[in-house]
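User
Take a look at the entry that follows and flag anything odd:
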Amino acid sequence: MATFEARWLTETQLRVHIDTLHVRQWMLDKGSLTQRLIDHCEGEFAVRLRREEQGKPLRSESLLLGLPECRLAIIREVDLLCRGIPVVFARTIIPFSSLRGRTRSLTGLGSRPLGAMLFQDPTTRRDTVQYARIRPGQGLYVSATQNLGQCTGALMARRTLFCYKGRPLLVNEIFLPTLLESGERIS
């Protein structure tokens, strides 16, 4: 994985850099991305698990979670599919300290969407949301595009630090060109 990372922005900074309403609507949506994709795909939505294993988070992920840089965590990477086409690459970082008691259900989801579980719990809250333009050569770009054909431009991303049942986890969502290039439905 590449060693340099994206520069993450606040919502105010993002609004200055993104002038396309369609892209802003996806990036700034406060609801469940899973539910929005289900609606967008007219029910033809699926999750494809790439991996779920112990790994070392990126430096910025560790900082946001308050983890020492060398600390391992559970890393879950999935493709969110609309009619079988990847439209979002999601990377979730779950500190081992977040896997106690009722929060053990965060692992072993397979092809079940994490977002649905998070948003079903009324105590879940978003603590921090950041936005970035992920460029070729950056670690998240390499991961997000590995299952795509030709992809040459920057990708829009957001990441959210959630508090689920009192425990932190970080969800990165990289929006793929098939979703953001047009305001129309995927056919």
Q: What stands out?
A: Helices lie at 11-17, 21-28, 33-40, 59-65, 114-120, 139-145, 177-180.
